[in-house]
């Protein structure tokens, strides 16, 4: 094993070490008054109860699936024998990352509120460093899982040649991504439903019907709402990005091993190491940048945003520069590969920044689009919805162009702009490797970007705690500043999550073809390649595509594209409806409490918070299964009926429509949220005006858009690829058409 | 020329003759009281004024484009010299069909109201027969244009071989579809914006703010609203389906000529005749079936629906049966082609019926989904929107599965279920011909299906007229029954329009590749085919795909897919926002009139209807240009930058996402509309309850969903293909990547 590799487990340990340090620092902070402790305790209990419930369901699903994979592997021999284990560890680490992140967040929010009593800077520091625990845990556990499997498989897998062995190792590792994907889906969907059922329910009865402010302790759904922020926005998002992070690294490794198969094991090893090392260095740069985020007392929103942006931009720029160094070290400077691939990485980084900025432009009320959306409230809720949908749809243009340019440039850089021979077998592999490594570049600084993202719900919860504990108004004002900042970073983070998911999914698409090749190889099959029959082991991506007639005019491909596009919508629709149903239950319950428990609205009676937490928990459990299983089953069925060409169509259709739909839903939701905030700041009549009520309707509709359905799509597009990859053996050996 | 061909112009004349007869019959009816005449006159004037304005803009755009095509053809020689003329006639006939349909509709609605004073049956007869004028005009003019060009080009085009000549004739004719598409886009988008600006504006101020009933004469926007039904739902939809109708026939002809190129001109001629004859016989069957639609006095909604369903189902079944006869006649019964292709046609017919039924299930308040949506109003407008979006997204599943099954079956039938050799060059051409002819089957009975569709707005306007003329309440009740029926048939018609658009677009996709081949041929180029270099003239579809590396993993294809998906959303977003903006202007104006013109609300003052008509007209003109030009320009730019592979990706991405998005938007909109009606019928508190207000918000949001953005997508996906086809010469001779 190349000695550079050991940087990877080391970086992983560095990340986990700092996560632990930040965690300890946070725990040492005072949690405040008895009321504050009490409320934090409620939220913590609710969150843990939910997670326990969710993991119970997930464990059952995982057990069934692992047994299924084991049967495929050991009875029917159409599956790699390591898959059941890889699948389980992927799920385990993903769940662990979510658990740690959430545990931290629920300890941190009360402490953030308490620190905010001292000063804004103190509040920021607690919240942000706690967010960093999440960020660093995700990347630390991700790299740890990757490093462990790499060592393990290197020791155990035996193949005829070293080149072969590297291909088998990397494609095997890829399948642990499926475990991570599956667990991420449940976390995102379940968490998303939970949080929005509570939020929508609390808003409708509390804000719209009873004119209570946000987080008012008289609102029975308010604890559930705060729990929701933790299980949805912290645990759910952590699992999502854990999966993107690992997925991008793993698929780049797999593509590297196959792209340079002919060049021999030395070059393969370099190509395998490159993504791991870029990620490893990114971890260290993230830690460094986290320390730069601080602000002076008396700083406003602009100052705070600048401080955070400085941190993330610093990490991104350093990471871009470092990539040139790393790749020069790995590939040597004897030929142009090092800077070609580095430029691919930079394409990905720039696309990430552009998508983030575009998201900010369309969703922040510092800019025209959201201000105009707020103005539409003058003509009532209907025009707010119409304009918000329009805004979200229009906002898809820039992210799509950014991704398209990044894909094409990453590909062209990787093949040294050899436009005349873009699609030779060698260049295709190399180009796709370039696209994959661009995704790694985009995610290399995840440690800090995820910190800015996880910070949001912590600040949000801190505000809730301050409100419910009836602290001095200036505390709530401070947490409001922190929270508003969190909204902006969350929007940027969402753009980032979607962009990286798209690039990762593309890399997985290429990996799928590799996996089909391995399956054919295992069966000793011949492939009818572009230039005639070849052995599967020697087949290029083009040969495999040719073998299955994966032409754009193949009806199975077209059928797949339609089904893929539909899947994105169907999945969204199911999750939207799930939120609608769950929120209705919550509304009914809150209304009941207002009616039956005397003196709630005057503050004399205590609402039954627990009942609301239970409703959300139960609804989320109940509702998450359907959409999740659909995402797992459809790719398998399409594979069995329409074959490899159909699956590729499915994945491409799902990726295209899913990406755009996700951007639309996230941005519409974000814009509605901030349009409401804009009105609340005093425009168009301010709080409690007709305009305000109209924007609250928009905000309520936007909740499941931006926090349930939209983000779940990221996982859907990756999971469908992962399922296809893991089931490649089955598809290759049996399909109807 | 084969003598069977003459059946085509004959059928066209039959259609136009009956259209004329029905028109005369309608005109003979009495238009009612002076007030009724007055109101009908207002609406007629407004509609004509709008159409005049619109055609002015369209003429300018057409002139510019025709000059551009002429330059490409005569200066740069990268364009077929007939294109500018074909383009212009396509646009002219499409506009003419819209004009006649709308003229009829505006004469018919007052007369329908008046007839409804006598009896329900009388009202139905006037409205439905007037709708039939539209249906028959569209198919009559469509077949006429096709027949004339076929005769003309047969006389003038000279090629080396007869086989070659047929290919050139049919691909040339295809380009008149672009004229039809372009005019259709303007009609749909402009009309859609017009109608919904007026409708939304009228609803927001009238229904929500002032509690006026629909079509109340005190509402200043009410005439504009009624004009909108005519320019959007009649003229816009007519142009849309004219385009689908011609597009499906033309692309099948083109595919027929190329699929059987090697089999020689005799077989080619058969394949060219088949779609024309299926359409011709469909026209006659439509006329026959139209006469079966009648009902007894005292009939309720169920009876009426049965009567209409009987007519359309009769036409569909007869058409399916007749197809076997026609194709046996054309292809002979010597081999299996006749029944193979007939089965393909039947697949298309069945898919059409399934999509229609699914649409009805999801949007009619006789079924659970819409009833549950209505129930969501108990928790306010936000949950109505959330559930409606969810419902629409879920409703995409069945139509997609129906289309996918139809595509795969039509293909497999056409190649005689030769699954082992699905993708040989011969089978691919034959299979795609099968898919194309399935679209023809779906649209063959357009004469009657469009009649049931155009009938809706006529009945709707009749209701408006009755209300504004303050006729006896039972008249309004009768027109309400007619109108409610119209909502159901409109929903079915929309499903039908979308389904046929998808199949047509697929056929156009295949035609695009043919067109590229012709362009290469004209340039005398060689093609690097699947099995080495071949002359362009002898290249198969697979060879052309191979020549341009149209692999699914080609980054330009992937880039195209992303851009195509994005286009669907961007286009929708732009039209949604256009409606939002235009509606806001309308709201401001109506509020102004309520404030400034004394006694409007007490019925003592007369509102300034004209001002509202002007606002809608101006806004529609102003707003339609942007999205329309985008749809024309983007395929050209993608072709120039990303080349043929990129264009194919664009078209497939646009088709997949566009189809699903269109179904979603239409069904959400339809369900919101009917959920409101369900509440109005007395459920959940009935009219003017909180639930009712919540559903009105849903209905208002649904208006642009179902009548502007959703239906415009049908045209977008076809137009992008058409533009690509027409620009194939340019793309083939120049592209960056």
Description:
The structure is a homodimer of 737-residue chains. Chain A has 737 residues and is mainly α. Chain A has one domain. A two-stranded antiparallel sheet of chain A has the order 1-2. The two termini of chain A are 43 Å apart. The mean pLDDT of chain A is 91. The interface between A and B is large, with 97 and 97 residues.
- Strand percentage of chain A lies at under 5%
The chain pair with the largest interface is: A-B, 97 and 97 residues
Shape of chain A: globular
Q: Looking at the chains present, what oligomeric state does this protein adopt?
A: homodimer
How confident overall, as mean pLDDT of chain A?
91
Uncertain stretches of chain A: none
What spatial order of strands do you see in the largest sheet of chain A? 1-2
| Count of alpha and pi helical runs of chain A | 21
Structural class of chain A: mainly alpha
Distance between the termini of chain A: 43 Å
In total, the number of domains of chain A comes to 1
